[in-house]
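FAQ: What does the model actually see?

It sees only this:
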Amino acid sequence: MDWSEIGEAWHAAGEPWATFASWYEDLLSDAPSPDWPLLERIALIAPDQWEGEDGPQKIAARIAEFRLERGVMATASGERVIRNQETSLFRVEPVTEIASDHLRHVTDILCDALDLFPSDGALGNQFTAISAELDIVRKAVASYADRPTQLHMSCTRVLRRTGIKVDRGECPAPSEDADLDDFLHLVTDAKATLMERDPSVQEAVAARAGTSLRDMSSDEAETIIAAADEAAAQSEGILAEELPDQARNAADATLPIEERRENFVAASGRLLRIYLLSGWTGSKKALEEVESLTKTAAGISKNIAVVSASGIGLWQASPLLKKAVDIILASF
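And it is asked to produce this:
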């Protein structure tokens, strides 16, 4: 038998063998390099955990926890997913330490940047090319005024996209146009302030810088899109609005690789956190360790306790969501 037959049989057998199959497939994948920290943690599992008839179950549970912790840490986005106790729907709330006056200063800077151009859409021909970038700033101010990490990502996206358009000659070079030069300086100032003032922004930026992603197949991309649609139907607010588009943008080959990457990390982080709140069947230790390792995951176990105590029926993780989570965890 070759591995494809063995792997298929292990997946069909369910747990714990499905976890071992996923782990081994990670090693065989086209990821940039083996996940040595993960392999080290597995090697350091206490010898007695490998023994006995339930040894495979215990080791599989620990491997699943390690992989989930890694995924949560790699997708830090300055937010956490919670359950609305009144509606039973998922939603996101920001995790931030920035002072409100500093955050207000950032949005004021971005408003100043927008004021450099007509608000009625009547841009001069030389600025028509950056109308989409101005819309990104407008959305950031309108939707992310209390979400520093999303504001920072929006600034990063605008600067990158505008730089590409300048290089292509689609709009004036900043050195040749005072308004565009001021616009870029203001957006850069807002981005720098967020980075300097908020540890959650620093954490999210560091997580992305340290993350290498493999290419997904079309079937894998479709699975994540379907899982995002399913999860969005059980969500509200920004989470319900953005999650389907993020999953689709991650799979859109016409977008710049950096933009696809940002969308994949954002969609993956939200799906992983929804999975944790949807009846995680592993040990509490995974949640405790995740909470101790990253502020983004802080409150996960606490929120589960609150939801359970309130009597709200948890939306159980579907087979589709579980399949998407396996794809996501194999992608980092």
